[in-house]
Amino acid sequence: MxxxxxxxxxxxRSMEIIAPHLSGLNLSEAETKVYSRMIxxxxxxxxxxxxRLHPYAIAAAQAALQKGCNIxxxxxxxxxxxxxxxxxxxxxxxxCRVADPAIAVMAKAEGITRSMAxxxxxxxDLAGAIVAIGNAPTALFEVLRLAExxxxxxxxxxxxxxxxxxxxxxxxxxxxxxxxxYITVEGTxxxxxxxxxxxxxxxxxxxxxx
Length: 210
Prior knowledge:
Elements: H1 7-18, H2 29-42, E1 51-53, H3 57-66, E2 71-73, H4 76-81, H5 84-87, E3 94-95, H6 101-110, H7 114-122, E4 130-133, H8 137-150, E5 156-159, H9 167-176, E6 182-185, H10 192-206
Parallel strand pairs: 2-3, 2-4, 4-5, 5-6
Antiparallel strand pairs: 1-6
Helix pairs in contact: 1-2, 2-10, 6-7, 7-8, 8-9
């Protein structure tokens, strides 16, 4: 059986297959690359009309990265999916506290999810950072609360939680917020690989070395 074996050839052919599904969306070159990588990670071209990307999201994320910002994630799967060699060029850290025993204690005491407790524990450290959420709607709701009530403003929120309870509502709230640039996906679709892919796409726009 003949098939493509080289990783970059596979990626390039994937992008060629995705391209026609983006042709009518009036995207910039940078936006096309972010959309393409998110769709590539999902294996689902139906994402194309559902992705919502704030006009300043890419530039805001790139500026934050170049300043050495941290990335805060809701689950380990997002943290694991971010390309470390690319991120390490900028000097920040990728933080996830969902498995921290202290977070479990906090979540139980306050009657909230661990992902929500983790975001609450980061508090003002989220200001100027990239927040990448791929699993927990409660984490996204908490980051939006911090922005609205405490004026804790990340550089960008990549909020793509997946599921049938709270996910669509949290992403709708993100897209309606007026304080923080965002990348999201309408409805129930999403997940950690998609959130990580959005981060990676932005980094590859800055420096495509792998």
